[in-house]
Amino acid sequence: MATPVYSGGARAPQRGRPRDASRDDALRQAALEVMAEVGYRALTMDAVASRARAGKATIYRRWESKLDLVIDTCTQLASQNLPEPDTGSLAGDLREFLSSLAAFLSGPVGKAAQALVGELPHEPELATAFRETFLIAQRDVLRRILERADHRGELRPEAPRGLAVELAGAALIYRLMLTGDPLDVAFVERVVDQVLLPLVAGGQ
Amino acid sequence: MATPVYSGGARAPQRGRPRDASRDDALRQAALEVMAEVGYRALTMDAVASRARAGKATIYRRWESKLDLVIDTCTQLASQNLPEPDTGSLAGDLREFLSSLAAFLSGPVGKAAQALVGELPHEPELATAFRETFLIAQRDVLRRILERADHRGELRPEAPRGLAVELAGAALIYRLMLTGDPLDVAFVERVVDQVLLPLVAGGQ
Questions:
Q1: How far apart are the C-alpha atoms of A111 and A100, rounded to whole Å?
Q2: pLDDT tens by residue, A58-110
Q3: Which of A153, A158, B8, B142 could covalently link to B68 via disulfide, CB atoms 3.0 to 4.6 Å apart?
């Protein structure tokens, strides 16, 4: 289960110069907006700086490349917006987490992620970083939800956990990026009740 | 179930001038290669013409725009490469069709489709055409597979067919475009046996 973790991201604060976290967030927000509008390939550090009314040097002090900035932005947003529920039941945890994830993906992050996905075949570094941050953040929460359910005796002995985690992500991403059908609570509940629980939950 | 169908595509043959179908295929193949390499936005009719060693006028006689060319290419390739199995059992049909689809998506069409997906949020006409051709082609085959299974009495009375069709596409696309894990026969069999059949098949 050990997973290599992308080692980039925001630089450590420079000596004697405390980092302003809210400034970092404003820069990430600008990066997200630019990416949602023009995609990864057309994004420039200049455009992000101009959107955030910052100097380009300000950005380069924090992130050494466009790739660093984009991946750190996705990672930070995912960690800030994907709270890990612990409702005491597998059904409750899955519904709550997947509803949060659906809401998160329906915003500008979803558009930015979709623009990134189109670039992955041509950008191997981006592909690796995207998989090791954005995808793994959601996968890890789902794995821990299943782990806790297992400790409570809620899973079948041979429950295919990896497949359940994969399908949960697949169902949401397919609506978001391919069909364009709504990522609403009704859909999340159908996926949880008709697909995920039958796949992994034990008979009571 | 009536679905609006994209009305573009290759033009009808001009009067007195028979169309050369193999020439059309060579032009589509060139379009596919260029799109897999540079994506939709950067694709130009000039680049396609040059790849196919054809004049630009030759291309414009057949397709009136880049959008027409790209969508017609995806549609034709899908119809040529996605034979509809009729093995006499739901399990057999699903395995055979999804294995063909996985193989088809693992080639250049998958890369081209991924490049298109990244552009959908910024290109509403492309998004509509992509959904009404590429996505509907696979969805319709799956619907007919379930329909035949129902006539043979293989489905549960309340089987959520739409959800099954959606998950089948989602599982393949997520591997192809997001995780990069292999789209192999073993994966297709797990999806069919552990997810799709339990979702829709009746107890024997």
A1: 16
A2: 999 999 988 889 888 888 887 788 889 999 999 999 999 999 999 999 988 88
A3: B8
